[in-house]
């Protein structure tokens, strides 16, 4: 059975009589966007590796998408978690979450725990863990661990080399990186 979800409108959107233009087919990992007022146009269709509705816990997303990525990182592969979306769409909450309930712990703290648990269990293997934290907003890149978080980084083949990196021996140091970056 294909289950299609339509996102709920918030109070402001209801008061402004906004029309819902996004729907999702979770089974097929597809999102559909309708052009307002274009009744005869079919909706734009996008297919992703995973789609998650508002009522699904971050824990589920972590287990299905991020867990395998972090496992690869602990085996020596590079991994990136990229949150993209409109302001107010839930990127920060999904990435950082809250400590309680555990099902709403963000992807970042779950990844920290996962990495350091894997390191503890590894035998005859050395790990070097470094953390960087950047933001891309309005096509501007900022180093959130830098001394001047308002300084723009120029996009170049090696702009990542200019990012501040904190060497992390303990999970708490990585958690500190996320706290410092969000406090700015």
Give me a quick take on this structure.
The chain is of the alpha+beta class.
Structural overview:
There is one protein chain. This protein is 30% helix and 16% strand. It has five helices and nine strands; from the N terminus they run βαβββαααβββββα. It folds into two domains: 1-55, no CATH class; 56-183, Kinesin motor domain (Kinesin, 3-Layer(aba) Sandwich), CATH 3.40.850. With 184 residues, it is α+β, with helices and mostly antiparallel strands. The protein has a four-stranded antiparallel sheet with strand order 1-2-3-4, with no helix packed on it. Strands 6-7-8 form a three-stranded antiparallel sheet, with no helix packed on it. The longest helix has 17 residues, at 58-74.
List the helices and strands and how they pair.
Layout: E1 4-6, H1 11-15, E2 22-25, E3 30-33, E4 44-47, H2 58-74, H3 91-96, H4 107-121, E5 130-131, E6 134-137, E7 140-143, E8 152-153, E9 166-167, H5 171-183
Helix pairs in contact: 2-4, 4-5
InterPro entries: Kinesin-like_fam (IPR027640), Kinesin_motor_dom (IPR001752), Kinesin_motor_dom_sf (IPR036961), P-loop_NTPase (IPR027417)
Keywords: ATP-binding, Coiled coil, Cytoplasm, Cytoskeleton, Microtubule, Motor protein, Nucleotide-binding
GO molecular function, one term: microtubule motor activity
């Amino acid at each position: 059975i294909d289950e299609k979800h339509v996102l709920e409108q918030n109070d402001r959107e209801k008061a402004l009589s906004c029309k819902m233009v996004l729907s999702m087919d979770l089974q097929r990992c597809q999102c559909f966007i309708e052009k307002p007022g274009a009744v005869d146009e079919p909706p734009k269709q996008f297919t992703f590796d995973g789609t998650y509705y508002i009522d699904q816990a971050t824990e589920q997303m972590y287990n299905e998408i991020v867990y395998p990525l972090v496992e690869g990182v602990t085996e020596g592969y590079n991994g990136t978690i990229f949150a993209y979306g409109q302001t107010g769409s839930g990127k920060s909450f999904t990435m950082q979450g809250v400590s309680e309930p555990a099902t709403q712990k963000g992807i970042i703290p779950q990844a920290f725990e996962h990495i350091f648990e894997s390191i503890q269990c590894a035998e005859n293997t050395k790990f070097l863990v470094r953390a960087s934290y950047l933001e891309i907003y309005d096509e501007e890149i900022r180093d959130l661990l830098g001394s001047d978080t308002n300084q723009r980084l120029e996009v170049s083949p090696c702009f990542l080399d200019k990012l501040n990196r904190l060497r992390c021996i303990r999970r708490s140091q990585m958690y500190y990186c996320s706290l410092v970056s969000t406090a700015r």
